Amino acid sequence: MGFFKKLFKLIFSRMVLVGLLLVLQVAVIVVGIAFLSNYFVYFYAFFWLLSLGVVIWLNSQKYNPSFKLAWTIVILLLPVFGGLFYIICGTNRPTRKFANQMNSICRQTNSLMVQDPAIMDKLRERDESAAIQSRYITNIASFPVYENTATEYLSPGEKKFERLKEELEKAKHYIFLEYFIIEEGIMWDSVLEILRRKVEEGVEVRVIYDDVGCLQTLPYRYDEKLRKMGIKAKVFNPFTPSLAIKMNNRDHRKIVVIDGHTGFTGGINLADEYINAYEKHGHWKDASIMLQGEAVWNLTVMFLQAWNFEKREDEDFEQFKPRIHWEKEFPDDGFVQPYGDSPMDGETVGESVYMNLISRAKHYVYINTPYLIVDNELYTTLSLAAKNGIDVRIVTPHIADKWYVHIVTRAYYKQLIKAGVKIYEYTPGFIHSKTFVCDDHLGTVGTINMDFRSLYMHFECGVWMYDSSAVMQVKEDFLKTLEICQPISLEDCNKVSVITRFLRGVLRLFAPLM
């Protein structure tokens, strides 16, 4: 009976119903075009010419070459349907209305994000190369760099969970949470219990969760349940059964802000596999970072931008900025710069931060990433650094969470290893950390995967650091993790079967569309 109950629940789940509606839309379009093409040669010619025009237009745009190649092949293989499908849901640019909503909010908050020139000058005096990297984030993403911010690296997820509960208990004014995935269980239920008590104490609590991320983990209209508890809640970009490109623009961030002076971000969602409460893909290795101090303001603004994305609220953001003498309350811990990456601005901030770290390294770059699906720019940057004698090491999972994504990740091994990049797989299970550390001085911890979705389509965030405590903590954790990883050699890459190589090649070709 248990099996049939689960099957019934799956069949009538929101995910399946929405999926069926999407398939129905595609079927209607295909049948409609096929019918018209079979009976009217002019319609066939029209759709064929439309596809040809789309290919010509697509290859004239400032898109990633891999993205353009993948869609060009799809359209040429399906010349009648391909062009129309690309117009409906293929472009990686958001709709104008969707982009205008977010860009309008960002313009309103830019006045709240003013860089202190004295801090930038001080960083420049310490390290000109680091200042150049920081200035890019300030100028392009509008997130300043700060001092007076303590950093603490938290890995694995169990450590973040304990520190998060400790800090939530201290909240006196407000708590903001923004997550890609929330799932009922040990982790979320424990956090929710604290949130409920804090609401009763008069603390303002707001929660944002991504609708696609929580499609299988939370009941439909879970936000209404939270509101009944006194928690303000919003669903980011509600998922609808429509062939619309904006459905690809998900909120992949994981942000916690407590009273404006304490913040968390990183790869860890609020679900039990992230704290190894149960084994899903072997041992789950993840990472987060806790900030305490002035730099938390960047995370606060990111949250408020997302909160006001679809439903404007006429509120003064300054009210959430603590009136604290930062220099007295928080010790100097290097330079800290939380940054956001949005698909709305046409700038791949997350990828540029990564490439800056790699290309400006003098001795080493150590990277943790769950997915190694890089575009030509990142591949070239990694390869050139290794060829220049930089010690480039990358740790990826040994046990996959998505088999097809893992196949594509492994498809990049051979070329990178030939260039001199050292690749390791996390033998105990799945590594979900997204961390970079460079030359004992620079590092970043965040939500940004090395794949096309994170780099081009999702809302993401990270924390760039120079000479902060967490930088060396990231390095120490990386080296300790290497002890239980297996190195991948060229011989390992050559051992795979012809069928596996072919599958890797095909999936790699269409990786930008996954």
TrEMBL record:
The keyword rRNA processing appears for this protein: no
This protein's GO CC annotations: plasma membrane
Single biological process term from Gene Ontology: cardiolipin biosynthetic process
EC class (word): transferase
Subcellular location: Cell membrane
Keywords per UniProt: Cell membrane, Lipid biosynthesis, Lipid metabolism, Membrane, Phospholipid biosynthesis, Phospholipid metabolism, Repeat, Transferase, Transmembrane, Transmembrane helix
Main location: membrane
A GO molecular function held by the record: cardiolipin synthase activity
EC number(s) recorded for this UniProt protein: 2.7.8.-
Keyword flag Chaperone: no
Protein name: Cardiolipin synthase
